[in-house]
Every structure is written in C-alpha cells, then in structure tokens.
Design a protein that fits this description.
Blueprint: H1 3-17, E1 23-28, H2 32-40, E2 44-53, E3 56-65
Antiparallel strand pairs: 1-3, 2-3
Length: 66
C-alpha cells in the first residue's frame, strides 16, 4: 500500500472517530495527479480560491468529503 493513501485513510478514520461532519482541503488547480488521488476517495469540488505571494498568483481548488 502506498504511504499517501494510508496517511489519508488514517486521517479519515480519525475524523470519523471525532465525528467531523466533513473534511476539506485545497489543491493547486494544475496538480491533476493530486486531484485524481482525492477524487478516488470521494472528495468533491466545493469551490476555488486564489493565493498570492508577491506578484505570483496560485489558483486552488477546494475539495470536501462528507
């Protein structure tokens, strides 16, 4: 089993134990591999946001799992 999947799986288990209503995260819009990784575990897009450092602009997608 790959470490990324196992870490995410353990985080979801802990969130369920703590009775979280949902989990959300942000991923760089151009990081298609990461987006597919989260979508395989039923994360859905809930919005977009921008992060700026100086003159650089980074577009992010917000994902959530209920």
């Amino acid at each position: 089993m790959k470490i990324g999947y196992e870490l995410q799986h353990q985080m979801i288990i802990k969130a369920e134990e703590l009775k979280f209503e949902n989990i959300w995260l942000s991923v760089l819009e151009t990081n298609e591999r990461a987006i597919r990784f989260y979508q395989k575990d039923d994360f859905k897009e809930i919005g977009k946001h921008v992060f700026e450092i100086g003159k650089e602009r980074f577009d992010f997608i917000a994902l959530s799992k209920i």
